[in-house]
Amino acid sequence: MLLLGCHLSAAKGYEHMGREAASIGANTFQFFTRNPRGGSAKALDLNDVARYRDFALQTGIPVMLAHAPYTLNGCSEDEKIRRFAMETMADDLRRMEATPGNLYNFHPGSHVGQGVETGIALIAQMLNRALFPEMTTTVLLETMAGKGSEVGGRFEELREILDRVELQEKMGVCLDTCHLNDAGYDIAGDLDGVLTAFDKAVGLDRVRAVHINDSKNPLGARKDRHEKIGEGTLGLEAIVRVMTHPALRDKPFYLETPNELEGYAREIALLKERCA
Ligand code: FE
Ligand code: FE
Ligand code: ZN
Questions:
Q1: Distance, CA 143 to ligand 3 centroid (Å)?
Q2: Which CATH class is domain 3-274?
Q3: Where along the chain do its domains lie?
């Protein structure tokens, strides 16, 4: 069964997100655990969580994807920023145990001139401090566009991070089609080649979610600017090939395209029709 949803606002709580997802034909969704620019999370409303869990069970929303704030940078050169990142992630992961068995995605970080090897070591250190053996959430490293000093634009970098994490079984990867294109992986022209390279470097069994975005930029631009499905350099057919590929079609897919709810509803309807 196709698992497809989009990014939703968490402002009105979990139950609202579940109902909103269902109202636009989605059976999964993504949300920010807190303000994407950082800051503190509002207190969990356990009644809302309970209502959401009932609704999700009844409606058939088997999984959701929480996204860490963009500002979380576990490989900053500033010790205070690194500590904040680790504490934010640890807090998010504790809170997520109220909704067990879901996914938590984060941008590996930017090494800001310290070099990619230092960046990788610091990201792994953050994960080794924030993850805990009892947790039921899977933590996903997102594939990045390689903008500036971003870590995670190369598959080998993701592999190096994963190799250093103690709680291996808690870790996975989230592919992002816009980021892959902007990083120079030609998913529109050679999807099989890209997936083979990913399999060799990381292992396709590590893919636990896919962000579905068209890109405003040419292959290898290292820019990271999302476009609506079919309006960018990837095009609708390339997106459909990603979503129907035997190695990916069972994964949950999330739109992060520049849309309001109605636009997301249209993209979901189109992709359901094309990928059914
Ligand atoms: Fe992201
Ligand atoms: Fe993404
Ligand atoms: Zn992006």
A1: 9
A2: alpha beta
A3: 3-274
SS3 17: helix
What is the distance in A from the centroid of ligand 2 to the CA of 116?
A: 21
Query: Rounded mean pLDDT of 33-55?
Result: 92
Q: 49-71: per-residue pLDDT in tens? A: 999 999 999 999 999 999 999 99
Distance in angstroms (rounded) separating the CA atoms of residues 7 and 203? 26
- Return mean pLDDT, the chain: 97
Phi-psi region of 243 (alpha: psi -120 to 50; beta: other; left: phi over 0): alpha
Is 70 catalytic? The answer is: yes
Which of 77, 186, 231, 256 is catalytic? The answer is: 256
* Pairwise CA distance, residues 105 & 69, whole Å: 10
* 1, 35 contact by CB (below 8 A): no
